[in-house]
C-alpha cells in the first residue's frame, strides 16, 4: 500500500481500460452497489467503433455494392461501366466511422466525471495501482480490460508509412493499386476480399495452409475457391520485406516462391493482449506461456486473487459480444470478491464477414461423432439470388443427435449462424429443429439436408407427420 504523501484514491473496483469490456465491467460493478474508478489514457472510443468492426464493415459494404453492380449481368441487367471513386469510398468509411466513434465517446462522457480518470495504470501491489501522474489507487478488486494491439512480425517494423494495420488502413486517402495482406485470419480475409472487390490488385499471404481457422475440410475448400476468385492466394510461404522509395518489395518461399512490389502491406497477423505496461509481477499473478494471467473463463478471476480479466486482454474469444459478457461477469465478481461465482457462458460463436461469411460455432468434428453437410452450390433460393456457393457442416453428439457445433461458409450464413448458435446453446437436437417450420423457398431450407443426415445416423426417427421429401427446386 502507498506510504508517501502523494494523492491516494480509494474505491471498491478499479477498471483499467475503457473499451467494450471495461465499460461493461464498470457498469456492472456500479450497478451492484460498488464505488468504481475507470482508467484510460485517451477515452477515444472502443476498438470496435474506431478501428475494428464498424470501419471494416463500411469498407465491406462498399465492396458489396461494387460486386453487385459487376454481377448484374447474371440477371440480364446491363451495367455499362462500374466506376469506383476510391477517395469517395474511403471518405465515407471515415465519415461514418467518426460518427460511430463520436456516439461512443458521448456515451462514455455520461459516466460521472469523478469516476473517469485519464492516465495509464500499473500495479504496485495486488490491491494498489499507480497512475503515470503519480496518483495511487487502493481498490478492493481490479478488472484488467486493456484490450489488444496489432502484432508486427520481425522484418516488417521498419517499413514506414507503407506498412498498414487495421488501425491505420482506414486513414488511406485513396484505394491503392497493389496491396499485400499478410495473415489470413478474420481481419486479413475480410479486408483482402473487400479491397479486391473494390478493384485493388490484392495478394494474400500466410505461412499456414488454413484460412480463417476453419475446422471442416469441405468448408475450407469452398472458402478457398471463393477467395481465389477475387485475389491471389499464397499459403504456406515465408516472407521477407524490403522498403523501396515508393513501394514495398516482398519475396516469398515455401510451397511457392516469387517476388513482387506493392504500394502497401497490410499486416494482419493477430492482436495480442496489451499487458506490457501493467507491471504484472507486482500483482503476484501466475502467467501462461504468452504472458497472459491464468484465469477462470467462467468467473474471469485470476487464480484466487482480487484481479479479474475482461475482453481481448484475456485472449479467449476476441469478439465484441464476448468482451461485453466478460465485462459483466468480471464487474459483478469484482464486487462480490471473495465470493466470486461462475457466469453462464455463450456457445462460442464467431463470424468472419467475407462474402459469403464464414461462421464458426461451438465444438468441432473431433468432439462429436455425427456430422451432416449441406452444399449450397445448387440450393434453390441461393440459385434464385445468384449466390449459390458454399458449404455448411453440422456436428452432433451421439446417441441423441444433439447439436454441438457448426462450420459454415454459405449465403446468409451470419443469419443461419445465429439460429444454429441459439439451438446449440439450448442443446437442441437435429430432430427438434426439423420439427420447426421451414418456409419455401429460403436459404434456411438448406439446413434440412444436414439435419436429416444427422437423424439418419442416430436411432432417432425423423418427425413422422412431416413430408420427408424435398420441395421442387429446393
Low-confidence stretches: 1-5
* Distance from first to last alpha carbon: 69 Å
Give helix % range: 25-40%
Sheet bearing the most strands, described? 7 strands, mixed
Total E-strand runs: 20
How many helical stretches? 11
Structural class: alpha/beta
Radius of gyration: 25 Å
Global shape: globular
Name the beta content range.
15-25%
Mean pLDDT across the residues is 94
Give a brief outline of the structure:
With 474 residues, this protein is of the alpha/beta class. The chain has 11 helices and 20 strands.
Summarize the structure in words.
- The chain has about 475 residues and is α/β, with parallel strands linked by helices.
- The chain is built from eleven helices and 20 strands.
- Strands 1, 2, 3, 4, 5, 6 and 15 form a seven-stranded mixed sheet that branches.
- A hairpin with a 4-residue loop joins strand 5 and strand 6.
- The protein is globular, with a radius of gyration of 25 Å.
Features:
474 residues, alpha/beta, 11 helices, 28% helix, disordered N terminus
Outline the secondary-structure elements:
Blueprint: E1 8-16, H1 20-31, E2 36-40, H2 47-50, H3 53-70, H4 86-109, E3 116-118, E4 121-125, E5 128-131, E6 136-144, E7 163-164, E8 178-182, H5 186-197, E9 201-206, H6 217-228, E10 232-235, E11 237-243, E12 248-254, E13 258-262, E14 264-267, E15 307-309, H7 320-336, E16 349-352, E17 358-362, E18 370-375, H8 380-385, E19 391-397, E20 402-409, H9 413-425, H10 430-434, H11 447-456
Parallel strand pairs: 1-2, 1-6, 2-3, 6-15, 7-14, 8-9, 8-14, 9-10
Antiparallel strand pairs: 4-5, 5-6, 11-12, 12-13, 16-17, 17-20, 18-19, 19-20
Amino acid at each position: 500500500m502507498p506510504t508517501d504523501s502523494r494523492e491516494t484514491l480509494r474505491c471498491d473496483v478499479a477498471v483499467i481500460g475503457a473499451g467494450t469490456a471495461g465499460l461493461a465491467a464498470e457498469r456492472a460493478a456500479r450497478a451492484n452497489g460498488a464505488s468504481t474508478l475507470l482508467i484510460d489514457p485517451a477515452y477515444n472510443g472502443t476498438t470496435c467503433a474506431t478501428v475494428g468492426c464498424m470501419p471494416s464493415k463500411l469498407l465491406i459494404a462498399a465492396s458489396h455494392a461494387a460486386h453487385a453492380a459487376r454481377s448484374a449481368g447474371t440477371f440480364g441487367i446491363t451495367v455499362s461501366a462500374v466506376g469506383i471513386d476510391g477517395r469517395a469510398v474511403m471518405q465515407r468509411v471515415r465519415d461514418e466511422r467518426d460518427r460511430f466513434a463520436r456516439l461512443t465517446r458521448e456515451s462514455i462522457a455520461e459516466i460521472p466525471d469523478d469516476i473517469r480518470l485519464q492516465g495509464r495504470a500499473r500495479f504496485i501491489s495486488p490491491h494498489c495501482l499507480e497512475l503515470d501522474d503519480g496518483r495511487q489507487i487502493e481498490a478492493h478488486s481490479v478488472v484488467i480490460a486493456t484490450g489488444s494491439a496489432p502484432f508486427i512480425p520481425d522484418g516488417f517494423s521498419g517499413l514506414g508509412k507503407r506498412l498498414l494495420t487495421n488501425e491505420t488502413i482506414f486513414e488511406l486517402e485513396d484505394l491503392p493499386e497493389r496491396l499485400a495482406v499478410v495473415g489470413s485470419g478474420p481481419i486479413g480475409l475480410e479486408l483482402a476480399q473487400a479491397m479486391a472487390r473494390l478493384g485493388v490488385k490484392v495478394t494474400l499471404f500466410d505461412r499456414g495452409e488454413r484460412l480463417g481457422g476453419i475446422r471442416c475440410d469441405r468448408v475450407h475448400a469452398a472458402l478457398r475457391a471463393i477467395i481465389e476468385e477475387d485475389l491471389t492466394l499464397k499459403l504456406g510461404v515465408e516472407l521477407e520485406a524490403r522498403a523501396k522509395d515508393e513501394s514495398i518489395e516482398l519475396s516469398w518461399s515455401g510451397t511457392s516462391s516469387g517476388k513482387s512490389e506493392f504500394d502497401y502491406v497490410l499486416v494482419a497477423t493477430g492482436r495480442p493482449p496489451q499487458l506490457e505496461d501493467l507491471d504484472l509481477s507486482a500483482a503476484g499473478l501466475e502467467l501462461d506461456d504468452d504472458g497472459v494471467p491464468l484465469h477462470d473463463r467462467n468467473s474471469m478471476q485470476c487464480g484466487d486473487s482480487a484481479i479479474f480479466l475482461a475482453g481481448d486482454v484475456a485472449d479467449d474469444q476476441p469478439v465484441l459480444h464476448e468482451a461485453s459478457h466478460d465485462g459483466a461477469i468480471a464487474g459483478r465478481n469484482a464486487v462480490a470478491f471473495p465470493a466470486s461465482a461462475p457466469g453462464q457462458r455463450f456457445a462460442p460463436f464467431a463470424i468472419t464477414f467475407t462474402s459469403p461469411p464464414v461462421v464458426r460455432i461451438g465444438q468441432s468434428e473431433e468432439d462429436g461423432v455425427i456430422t451432416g453437410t449441406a452444399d449450397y452450390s445448387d440450393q434453390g433460393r441461393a440459385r434464385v439470388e445468384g449466390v449459390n456457393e458454399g458449404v455448411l457442416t453440422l456436428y452432433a453428439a451421439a446417441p441423441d443427435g444433439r447439436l454441438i457445433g457448426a462450420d459454415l461458409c454459405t449465403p446468409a450464413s451470419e443469419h443461419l449462424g445465429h439460429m444454429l448458435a441459439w439451438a446449440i446453446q439450448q442443446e437442441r437436437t437435429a430432430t427438434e429443429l426439423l420439427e420447426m417450420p421451414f418456409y419455401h423457398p429460403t436459404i434456411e431450407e438448406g439446413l434440412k439436408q444436414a439435419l436429416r443426415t444427422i437423424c439418419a445416423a442416430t436411432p432417432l426417427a425423423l418427425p413422422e407427420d412431416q413430408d420427408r421429401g424435398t420441395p421442387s427446386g429446393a
